[in-house]
Design goal:
about 45 residues, about 55% helix, Transposase IS66 C-terminal domain-containing protein
């Protein structure tokens, strides 16, 4: 289950033009501080 969630987050980041590993590091840092996880930006509109 955890693997599927991780893969889903990575693929969502890629589709939205966000580097997945820095995003995941930011999520972990913010959650350790008790802050909500950062929101992924909306995907760019298709040309």
């Amino acid at each position: 289950m955890a693997f599927a969630l991780l893969v889903s987050v990575i693929e969502t980041c890629r589709k939205r033009g966000v580097s997945p590993w820095p995003y995941l590091a930011q999520v972990v840092q913010q959650r350790r501080k008790g802050e909500p996880a950062p929101v992924l930006p909306e995907p760019a509109p298709a040309p």
